[in-house]
Amino acid sequence: MRTNRTTLPPEVLLEEYRKILAEDPRVQALPLVVSGSSMSPFLIHGRDTVWLSRLQRSVRRGDILLYQRANGAYVLHRVWKVCPDSYTMVGDAQQELEPGIRDHQIIAVVTAVERKGRKLTPGSFWWAFFEKIWIRVVPLRQPLHRLYSIAHRDRRN
Fold first, then answer.
1. Taking the model in full, what pTM does it have?
2. Cα dihedral across residues 32, 37, 40, 46: positive or negative
3. Which pLDDT score, from 0 to 100, does residue 1 have?
């Protein structure tokens, strides 16, 4: 069976996703191929797919959210801190925190990931590692990422 693939500009696709998730209760999750490197090493550009769902509970530290910045850019980052009226976000590959994200900017929460061809859900080892451990080592990320890259490069040789 052949599957037709259509590529849409991100702003068009994500605006459609926003509408579908807000208006159609039959839709449980929508797939989105990861674009960009801000969530590596957990999510890799062009390789991994996230499953986006409407948010049906309170946001928690470690959640991966799709949100729209004030400048219109769509971003998929992890919650670093939950504040009374906003959230502070950070990509898994980043050290710079992004404060001030509000509820009306949130489009969806990631409820599953297809990573390296395998489906991961909350509670799996790598999900828990990035959600509970990696989120706590923001200042150490750059050297840890370098070590990971060196180790990964050595395995390929």
1. 0.85
2. positive
3. 63
